[in-house]
Amino acid sequence: MLIITPKQEYSGLIEIEGEMDLHSREYIQRSIEKIYLAQNPFLILDLGKVSKIDSFALSVIAALKRKISALGGKLILINLSPAVQSAFEITRISKAFLIYANLQEAQNYITEHTTKN
After folding, report:
1. Which helix (H) or strand (E) holds 28?
2. Do the Cβ atoms of 2 and 24 come closer than 8 Å?
3. pLDDT tens readout for residues 53-99
4. End-to-end CA distance of the chain
5. Half-sphere exposure of 94 (CA within 13 A, CB side)
6. DSSP secondary-structure letter at 92?
7. Number of Cβ atoms within 10 Å of the Cβ of 30
8. Cα torsion for 41, 42, 46, 51, to the nearest 10°?
9. Is the pLDDT reported for residue 113 higher than 60?
10. Measured between alpha carbons, how far is 23 from 79 in angstroms, rounded to an integer?
11. Better-scored residue on pLDDT, 64 or 30
């Protein structure tokens, strides 16, 4: 079972828990896009509780990144679980994403890039 939860401590933070795979692909895409459209230009996905991720879910995250970038925003990934970290390393796509160890590091990035504008 996959759970997608917008977190209250930061308006652009979404926590994902469970298995991200072919069966949850459309749910992931619809849920995150719906939440993002009502938020700010920075979207943070907390993947610390993701137990499994496959290439279909990775493609959804990559497509989401492209869509957010086209709208002038940034997708930030935090707290990558070992399963997610491994998938990103195996597919060699980690360099295409903003990845931080925790929410504080992501917020520091956001603060740095919003004060420069």
Report:
1. helix 25-37
2. yes
3. 999 899 989 988 998 888 888 999 999 999 899 999 999 998 899 99
4. 40
5. 12
6. T
7. 11
8. 60
9. yes
10. 23
11. 64
Domain spans of the chain, in order of start: 24-75
**Integer angstrom CA distances of residue 69 from 1, 46, 93:** 29, 18, 16
Amino acid 73 reads G
54: left (phi over 0), alpha (psi -120 to 50) or beta: beta
For 26, the token pair is 């459309």
- Identity at 91, one-letter amino acid code: T
Q: Who's near 74: CB < 8 A, 6+ residues apart?
A: 41, 42, 43, 68, 98, 113
pLDDT of 96:
92
Kindly report the pTM of this predicted structure.
0.86
Question: To 10 degrees, the CA torsion angle through 88, 82, 31, 108?
Answer: -80
Are 16 and 47 within 8 A, CB to CB? yes
> Which two tokens mark 10?
């930061």
Q: Are 61 and 78 in contact (CB under 8 A)?
A: no
